[in-house]
Write a structure and sequence with these properties.
Chain lengths: 211, 211
């Protein structure tokens, strides 16, 4: 069994969405070996910092919260697609080249995993791409960007996907992962009432049994 | 594939270690559909609230931090042992009745999963029990308590286990899980420099293929 960690490390100077200060995680020491007998910290973090899952409430007033997420949607086989040569955005024309079926969880690997663009002009999924995936009846989509879209009107990619109950998994790191099928395990922290939550996402590949 | 969610829900009034106010998680709304176009929250949480993994730094000044944890130790087959009839504490005599081998990750299911005692006189693992597990060379131990010990001098259970690099997984919910072997997936949020981190722990059982 080979495990691929596809999550971001969480620290103050990590890349955050559009370099927004409010998205920086802060780790405070509450007890150390001088003030006490144990070391304990407290973390303050926006739910869209680092690797996380968006629930429908993020964009839809009547959307469900992250604690209502069915774990079967995020512990499932998935297909990683390599789009690292795509510039700008991923759209229908790119997705049409791949084998996508109803019930798939798909993961988009882009230039974002290679270049220092997460806080700037990162690759995203456009509206036509999102419509294509919705029509294909996928159950979830992951991307190696802190947002699945960048600056589109009315957050159209998010709204389209979340409106159909399609899981959005953001902030993946995919440099070490080849295009293939894997077992995805991406169960988020069960934060009651939240519109998103952090997750330590991994891909698992069953290795061939030696003869 | 059957998935068992063995994690606690995170909310302000959840059970916290010894009812300490500083351990209560606080979820603040940073943007909603009145103040903005999206709903976003920020979570403030002690790293020992809810289901979490302790790294050695929690008790040992030169101990490693949670970001150094090898995920192979927490994505692994595990053995759940049923100790729900044990009163007070789990010790060597109870563990001796079970089949424990070198390299095992073991999970202790106790009365804590059934009774409202998490904030009070919960069942814990005593020093003799911890010594027995260390000598068996296990790689990790999980328990359905917010602390693997309760009020022992010098945190002897923690220190003994963490000093050997044995993973401690706390805050499990095991009511729905029978004594058996499972695949454990308990990869914590990768908080750099922290002595512990929250995890959405699950057990996975491969179901028999129908004939």
């Amino acid at each position: 069994m080979k495990i691929y960690d596809i999550s971001m490390s969480v620290f103050y100077d990590m890349p955050v969405y559009k370099k927004k200060a409010a998205k920086r995680p802060v780790l405070n020491v509450e007890s150390d070996f001088i003030s006490g007998a144990v070391y304990e910290t407290k973390l303050e973090m926006n739910m869209h910092t680092g690797t996380h899952i968006d629930a429908p409430l993020h964009m839809l007033e009547d959307g469900y919260t992250i604690d209502k997420l069915d774990l079967k949607k995020v512990i499932t086989t998935c297909k990683v697609f390599d789009f690292k040569h795509v510039e700008g955005k991923i759209s229908q024309e790119h997705l049409e080249e791949k084998n996508i079926s109803a019930g798939d969880f798909i993961i988009l690997k882009t230039k974002n995993s290679y270049e220092d663009i997460l806080e700037g002009e990162f690759i995203y999924l456009d509206k036509q791409g999102a419509e294509y995936l919705r029509n294909k009846k996928i159950i979830g989509v992951g991307i190696d960007a802190l947002g699945i879209e960048r600056a589109q009107p009315n957050h159209e990619t998010h709204t389209l996907l979340l409106g159909e109950g399609i899981v959005i998994l953001e902030g993946l790191r995919l440099k070490e992962v080849e295009e293939a099928e894997y077992l995805l395990v991406a169960a988020p922290i069960n934060v009651v009432g939240a519109e998103a939550a952090p997750v330590r996402a991994v891909l698992i590949k069953q290795q061939a049994v030696p003869l």
